[in-house]
């Protein structure tokens, strides 16, 4: 798995803003195998860019961004799993290094965040980045923002029937 990530292939479902494109590759033994690479999904990639703009350029908090996204589900379709944007979902987008074009694996161990130095990463531009590294850095949570400080009433509300 480590070799696949370092080679830039996607393991598991693609993050919001991307889709997985299956490609056929030949391994060193000459066997042909299917692998997945990330390619931008034109509609949801625009949402990811907007999230980073609101965060990096306007300094908006995760809950405020989630509220803006939920106000127009047609323009900002929510992730399928939750059916709506939450502060926690926005934070996950903001902190995911895949958006700068790197493959990353093992960011968590047993459901807990792993230290950055233990992550398995590819080189830069393993796939098309959705945000530049400077914007990504500016959008990151500040030291005074607790990882537990992302709850809002929408986090516990049932999905809308719309």
Automatic annotation (TrEMBL):
<dbReference type="InterPro" id="IPR050639">
    <property type="entry name" value="SSR_resolvase"/>
</dbReference>
<dbReference type="InterPro" id="IPR011109">
    <property type="entry name" value="DNA_bind_recombinase_dom"/>
</dbReference>
<feature type="compositionally biased region" description="Basic and acidic residues">
    <location>
        <begin position="141"/>
        <end position="155"/>
    </location>
</feature>
<protein>
    <recommendedName>
        <fullName>Recombinase domain-containing protein</fullName>
    </recommendedName>
</protein>
<feature type="region of interest" description="Disordered">
    <location>
        <begin position="117"/>
        <end position="162"/>
    </location>
</feature>
<dbReference type="Pfam" id="PF07508">
    <property type="entry name" value="Recombinase"/>
</dbReference>
<dbReference type="GO" id="GO:0000150">
    <property type="term" value="F:DNA strand exchange activity"/>
</dbReference>
<dbReference type="InterPro" id="IPR038109">
    <property type="entry name" value="DNA_bind_recomb_sf"/>
</dbReference>
<dbReference type="GO" id="GO:0003677">
    <property type="term" value="F:DNA binding"/>
</dbReference>
<feature type="domain" description="Recombinase">
    <location>
        <begin position="15"/>
        <end position="149"/>
    </location>
</feature>
